[in-house]
Amino acid sequence: DIVYFLLVNLICNFYILGYKPTKNLSKRVNMNVSIIANKLPILTLHSIINGVEETGIDINNIQEHIVCFDDGLYSQLKLIKELNKTKKVYFFPSGFLIRTNKPVLIKNSLAHIQLENLLSVDSEKYFNKDSKYFNTFLNLKEIEELIKENVNFGIHGWYHLNLNQSEIKKIETRFKKRIISVLREDASLSWNFYKYLINKYPSKFYENDTLILNYCTPYNVWNEYQKMWVELFKGFIMKDPINDKNVKLNIFSYERNKNAIK
After folding, report:
1. In the predicted structure, residue 256 carries a pLDDT above the cut 90
2. For 26-171, where are the E strands, in sequence order?
3. Helix (H, G, I), strand (E, B) or coil at 141
4. Coil, strand, or helix at residue 211?
5. 3, 73, 127, 147: most buried by Cβ count inside 10 Å?
């Protein structure tokens, strides 16, 4: 396992699985990566049902915090719009978890547990999104509505992968692929989703000619596997840039809610 991990890391860092920069591309695109969640007062919220945030955060006493809404949940929609009027607000949906039917209010933690169980028992139904637990998330129309209202969009991966070391073998079993292939697929789909939104609403993603991208690591993980994902994501951006302007990628991870108000 150690040899395999080192080999994967080597491949990821020096080849990006097929990514070969075009001539002089690095001179055209300047990418800055900043890990900001451990430097600023950031509050991460999850499902909000009947006015109660599921982890116990007092949503009436948020004060000076930058607010991040994880997972792109339908139950967050009203509060996102309300807080965005006076604060800096981010929301982080995962592409695969976009709702396609009528919304169902389910606690986020319960939804993820049930989706994991469904994936373990019947992956065909999972990948067909055949479960009410998929319907607790925002749909594409609602995501675009928030972008148009100037809420800061960020990606939460495509499949919302749990990249803790203990979960890697499970991911490989579920996807029937090596972890590096799963990471590559997830990063590619995430960039395609981001690119679709940028092309549709270009004015919402730029600050002073710099393209601003935001990524929140699923399950608050920041380890070597998650760093590989970031390198792959950067590789797809460089391979298929939207333009030749600067890119800033902000990464939200670990130490979120360190000083949460409860």
Report:
1. no
2. 31-35, 42-45, 48-49, 52-53, 66-71, 89-93, 152-153
3. helix
4. strand
5. 73
Structure tokens at 108: 């986020």
Sequence-distant (6+) residues with CB within 8 A of 138 are: 72, 73, 74, 76, 77, 93, 98, 99, 146
> pLDDT tens digits for 54-84?
989 999 888 778 899 999 999 999 999 999 9
Q: What's the Cα-to-Cα distance from 230 to each of 90, 158, 216, 249, rounded to whole Å?
A: 19, 13, 11, 9
- pTM score of the predicted model: 0.85
| CA 25 – CA 191 distance, rounded (Å) | 18
**CA 83 to each of CA 47, 65, 105, 140: distance values in angstroms, whole numbers, following the listed order:** 15, 11, 20, 21
Between CA 133 and CA 125 the distance in angstroms is 12
Q: pLDDT tens across 192-241, in order?
A: 999 999 999 999 999 988 999 999 999 989 899 999 999 999 999 988 77
The dihedral sign for the CA sequence 79, 82, 83, 89: positive
CA 165-166-168 angle, 5° bins = 65
CA distance 5 to 177: 15
Q: What are phi and psi of 48, to 5 degrees?
A: -130, 105
Q: Tell me the angle at which helices 140-148 and 179-200 cross, rounded to the nearest 10 degrees.
A: 50
pLDDT band at 183 (very low <50, low <70, confident <90, very high): very high
Sign of CA dihedral 176, 181, 183, 187: negative
What are the start-end ranges of the H helices in the chain?
2-14, 25-28, 77-83, 108-121, 123-127, 140-148, 168-175, 179-200, 224-239
